[in-house]
Amino acid sequence: MSASVLDLKNLSVRFATPEGEVAAVSELSLSVGKGECLGIVGESGSGKSQTFLAAMGLLARNGRAVGEAIFGGINLAAADENTLNRLRGNKLAMIFQDPMTSLTPHMKVGHQLTEVLVRHRNLKFPAARDRAIAMLRRVQISEPERRFEMYPHELSGGLRQRVMIAMALMCGPELIIADEPTTALDVTVQAQILDLIRRAKEELGTAVILITHDLGVVAGMADRVGVMYAGRIVELGEVHQIFNAPQHPYTKGLLACTPRLDDATASALVTIPGQPPDLQQLPTGCAYHPRCGNVMERCRAAAPPLMSTGGGGLKACFLENFGSVQAGTVVP
Amino acid sequence: MWSYFARRVAIGIPTLWAIITVCFFMMRLTPGGPFDGEAPVPPEILANLRARFHLDDPLWRQYLDYLANLLRGDFGPSFKYRDFNVTTLIAQGFPVSLQNGFSALVIAIMIGVPLGIFAALGQNTRRDYTVSAFAMTGIVIPNFIMGHVLILIFGVWLKDSVFHLPAGGWADGALANRVLPVFCLSLPYIAYLVRITRGSMIEAMRANYIRTARAKGLPFRLVVLRHALKSALIPVVTFLGPATAFLLTGSMVVETIFQIPGIGRYFVQGALNRDYTLVMGVTILSAALVIAMNLIVDLLYSLLDPRVRYEGKQ
Ligand SMILES: Nc1ncnc2c1ncn2[C@@H]1O[C@H](COP(=O)(O)OP(=O)(O)OP(=O)(O)O)[C@@H](O)[C@H]1O
Ligand SMILES: [Mg+2]
């Protein structure tokens, strides 16, 4: 793997709440290589979004990031607003889940695109307009001149997400963080949006972090996949390894939960028993142990560190002989 | 869009007529009449007066006459100020109330809105608490107390200093005479505007599109002014519509405390004296203003939010 664009080192995210401090992300470390697509999967609340919002300096007011998120030699987790503002939208861009509410309703979409160029490239409006229209065309929006003058409510969800992508690509970023970019969209539109992101990655060499809870999305896009549970990475590895030889019971559970069209035997729905843990009262030891079908005594006592698997990946599990791992519970 | 507003204006006319009608009959239903003063009027004089003001005509007759006069722009004679007709009284008093109300409005907006934004952006910090405490004070202190406190400070205690201001009177609108009443009028509105703006700004800053704007690397100032402000102003405009109508028609409390010859005073005196035509005149003026302000508010909505459209939907 070539040099990395983003290095997270022991990154934690904590929120001050009336009930006390909660750690949404705990000492998470990973890196994203240049031009790589890293998928991040995990159940709702596992800390996927907060990890990368912390890297963008976009945590809610009651949140704070501890640790490092190194991007271009700068620790984003500790950078001031000015430093962040020079990078955000420029070298580092983010696409959000909900295209219906992620664009400013009272501004023409064109203006929302050009302001990125005016901000980071010092362009005057006419030049910025030309570039924005070219970018709209690039993300396959028909009649870009007309759409440029429209307000967000005049566009469909799919078109708005294309606008969001155009906005992210405007300055040719080194890294795009896409937080569930297709979750709110129709299935047919989803594929088109993913295709656009894939093309950006291939044509512009942009690294992509693709956050999703849909393993299907990750399978077609990612080079590597990180699986998150309760604010930690529990498994990280090449995409084919994660899918073909998962090393963590949770990963295996997630895979079993994903209905597969090509698998004739998977006629019943499989679920992981139990609920994701309450961050306020994490279980002792491994946070997954109450739901794990292979729980051992030591899992209750201590949390397993991330250790290397045979195939070059990482897993946070004490189990050694993985063939016998229970995936989940079959719901008849 | 313009046809929408033309229609709104057209709807305003029957609305106004309904208000006039209800008000006319309600006035007549209240016990007592314009000539029931403290000293009883001799019966012959009373009969004369009633005849002169057509009070002996059947009620429907009086009502139709009143409407007919209105159409000619004549609000009728005042029952109390017998040498004046209501049109004249309004023409004298309304400009005074209008000027004071407008000044108070402008001051309230210029102070209240920025202060509300300032508090919102420092939500739950000391500056927020300070500003909010000030706003709360402004809301809970009624202006008949505030007015007297201001008079006590600037009219009495500071009498021999450069800060002395007249305790009352109008002096044909001398600047010094305006300061206290305008300030007193604007204070509660500043306070309300601070609260409303603060709340809506906090709400606006939580929107997803604000996160998008920040993710673009826009400086905070631009995020606030370009992306958050417009939607934050919608509740402010909603409040300001009726508030403006209210302010421009004069505050009876403030005008009474500071002895200002505006129309706010007429309303109360008119009601107490059963001065039918005077009350009607002031009511019609207020109602027309409220209708006009609602129209302006709708127009402003469409400027603040492009999703608000006034297409010619039937
Ligand atoms: N402002 C906040 N204050 C307190 N807790 C928060 C705050 N924001 C997020 N959290 C908590 O942080 C945890 C992680 O949230 P995060 O948004 O990263 O989840 P996610 O993995 O992205 O889930 P989803 O798939 O639902 O988007 C959640 O349990 C959430 O309740
Ligand atoms: Mg999320």
Look at the structure and name the CATH superfamily of chain B: MetI-like
Oligomer: heterodimer
* Distance linking N and C termini of chain A: 44 Å
Counting DSSP H or I runs of 4 or more residues, the number of helices of chain B is 12
Given the helix and strand composition of chain B, which structural class is it? mainly alpha
Q: With helices defined by DSSP (H or I, 4 residues minimum), what is the helix count of chain A?
A: 11
Named CATH architecture of chain B? Orthogonal Bundle
Gross morphology of chain B: flat
SSE order of chain B, one letter for each helix or strand: HHHHHHHHHHHH
| CATH class annotation of chain B | Mainly Alpha
As a percent range, the share of helical residues of chain A equals: 25-40%
Radius of gyration of chain A: 21 Å
How many strands in all of chain B? 0
The amount of beta strand of chain B, in percent, is under 5%
**Mean pLDDT of chain A, nearest integer?**
89
| Residue share in β-strands of chain A | 15-25%
Total discrete domains of chain B: 1
Q: Percent of residues of chain B in helical segments?
A: over 70%
Predict the CATH topology of chain B: MetI-like fold
Cα Rg of chain B: 24 Å
Largest sheet of chain A: 8 strands, mixed
